[in-house]
Amino acid sequence: MKHSEFWRAVDTVFGSAYGRSLAQDLVLSGIGRTSAEALEAGVPPRDVWHALCDDTDRSEADRWVFRDDTRRHRRDTR
Predict the structure, then answer these.
(1) 51: which residues sit within 8 A by CB, 6+ positions away?
(2) Pfam families of this UniProt entry (predicted)?
(3) pLDDT under 70 in the chain at which residues?
(4) Is 49 in contact with 4 (CB distance < 8 Å)?
(5) How far apart are CA 76 and CA 18, in angstroms?
(6) How many Å is the Cα radius of gyration of the chain?
(7) Rounded CA gap, 78 and 74, in Å?
(8) In b/e form, how buried is each residue of 12-31, taking b as 16+ CB within 10 angstroms?
(9) pLDDT at position 68, please?
């Protein structure tokens, strides 16, 4: 997972305003930092994403939303 995929997943699952607020304010129990702090400190985005999903009780579908390849879907629908 890239940083851009992390932020796209945050926006998709939580909405842009609430998601950015969570990333800035919620200290992740498994990491001991906020998502933004963890990313800045070099924690892999995938680890941050899974910690955020754990702490906010997200569904499995939400947890793997970043795996949805929109390019593939566009190709398949042409």
Answers:
(1) 28, 29, 30, 31, 35, 38
(2) DUF3046 (PF11248)
(3) 68-78
(4) no
(5) 32
(6) 13
(7) 7
(8) ebbeeeebbebbeebebeeb
(9) 60
Between CA 62 and CA 3 the distance in angstroms is 17
Tokens of 72: 């593939």
Contact 1, 44 (CB under 8 A): yes
Q: Enter the tokens of residue 16.
A: 């842009």
Find tokens 């945050």 and name the residue.
10
Residue 73 burial (10 A CB sphere; 0-12, 13-18, 19+): exposed
Instruction: Decide: residue 40, CB within 10 A, 0-12 exposed, 13-18 middle, 19+ buried.
Output: exposed
How confident is the model at residue 66, as a pLDDT?
79
